[in-house]
Write a structure and sequence with these properties.
single chain; alpha/beta; two-stranded antiparallel sheet
Length: 156
């Protein structure tokens, strides 16, 4: 059964924090930073004194116990030492040999996710807010939603 849950349906309702041990953050991050004038993987691009990777790990660690990163072959060598420092043994790296798109990247991680729930966040989404993650994970746990795609509509 499909249904759409709109902001008006959840506004004002209290949702508890997710059980982070039941969640994996799956992060496709095989992009290069070349359009940014950066010679490393885009996920290592610095914004306000931290890399995009640090911003994502800081945001998602309260909601996800495990992390799966999909990286390019060349990006793996640069990103893995940073992951080890930030996450210890809470991550897995899957390699996307050729850039065939996001669906292909996600498919590379199919057998790496071991938790009940998966939160997919693109590796360049540095502006996500905690409230968005909290509501999305809570909807899955409390309202038994099987798929959510948070969107933001603006007039201009």
């Amino acid at each position: 059964m499909n249904r759409i849950v709109e902001n008006s349906d959840i506004q004002g309702k209290f949702f508890t924090t997710s059980n982070f041990r039941e969640w994996t953050a799956l992060i496709p991050a095989a992009g290069k930073g070349s359009r940014l004038g950066f010679d490393s993987p885009k996920i290592l691009y610095p914004i306000n004194g931290k890399t995009i990777l640090e911003h994502l790990v800081n945001l998602l660690s309260a909601y996800c116990h495990e992390f799966v990163f999909i990286l390019s072959p060349s990006g793996k060598a640069q990103v893995e030492p940073v992951l080890k420092k930030l996450l210890g043994d809470r991550y897995i790296i899957c390699v996307q040999e050729k850039p065939k798109g996001m669906a292909d990247a996600i498919a590379k991680a199919e057998y790496s996710v071991k938790t009940k729930n998966t939160l997919i966040v693109w590796g360049d989404q540095v502006c996500l807010e905690k409230e968005t993650i909290r509501l999305a994970t809570a909807l899955h746990e409390e309202a038994k939603v099987s798929l959510s795609l948070p969107t933001y509509l603006k007039e201009d």
